[in-house]
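Question thread 4412

I'm putting together a teaching handout and wanted feedback from people who do this every day. The idea is simple: show students a protein as raw sequence, then show them the structure tokens that encode its fold, then repeat with a second protein so they can compare. Below is the first pair exactly as I plan to print it.
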Amino acid sequence: MTLSGETRRDSRGLILSAARQEFGQQGYAGGRVDRIARRAGVNKQLIFYYFGSKAGLFQAVVESASRDIASDAGAAGLSGGPLDQLRALLERAFNTLAANADLLRATVVASETGEGSRALWAEHLAQLGETIRALVSDAQGLGYVRDDVDPAIVAHTAVATVVGSVVLPGASGDRRPLGEIDLLIRGLAW
């Protein structure tokens, strides 16, 4: 069976999208390859052809979702003053994490997914933290942020706030943490 490049990409994308929904709703242990195949409208064997196993599929889903965070973790495209840029970055990060809330929760909170998946999230969240640290440090150098503020602690607190507002029990992915973000930024300024 020979698949054209276009068909292959479409099928792979459909599978990843269906798997993201399935694993997000059911977790890794509860996610079923046959349901993913039905959602994607493909043969179950095609999933194994592309991803090798359920674990390989889950890893690909986490890689795809964590790449979304990595692409949003940079300061590129941010406008305004340093504190406006920080606010925009935190809102963008929250929106990306909220769009992947169930998958993030299943990966970070659940223990069945293994260290590799958590390590991917951790790597990209660390990139986000480094971007926040650099923004705060630059704002501090320009006089927008108090001198007694430690940019690394602010970065850690900001990432924890955004992630916690998505993954903690009772967190709502549709509730934007604008109050928390505003409080954090007001605490930095003179």
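The second pair follows. I'd like the answer to focus on this one:
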Amino acid sequence: MTIEMTESKEPKVIKANYMLQNKVGAGPLDRNAVDRCQDVMDNNDVDFAPLGMEYLNKLKEAIDKTKSGDLTKDQAVQAMTEPVMQLKANAATFRYTLIGNLANVMLSFLEAVSEIDKVVIEIVDAHYKTLTAIVMKKMQGDGGAAGKQMEEELKAACKRYFTSKN
């Protein structure tokens, strides 16, 4: 039996919780406020390196603990996923599109692994080293052709890993 066979085709109405609406108000947002927020985002000149390195240090710590066998598979995946997720989330704010793209690939990889073996750790460690170089060199944007190649290489490494496991 598939999910489609068990689910009703009728829409289910879920009553909204109005607590958030009561806090922020209702109706459209003030256009001037939206424009001011967009201007702040567009002209953001805050240095991403300290924040990026904080998350990269957490990723390195997770890699080291995983290598030493201090973490179970689930703990290792969680410990490595959290800083990668934070990098992905924050990179776009600071115009580090390449970091966001690479982190997205890594998140998909970590979600799909069934075990943490030597090759998984090597792939995550290579990812860590790549992102560290990008942050240290302050490579904003998508990295152009080199960035695309890095993304394709990471995808290829992940694909090779899963191909070898099947």
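Top answer:
Good format. For the second protein you could add a caption like this: The domain at 49-165 is CATH 1.20.120.160 (Four Helix Bundle (Hemerythrin (Met), subunit A)). The radius of gyration is 20 Å.
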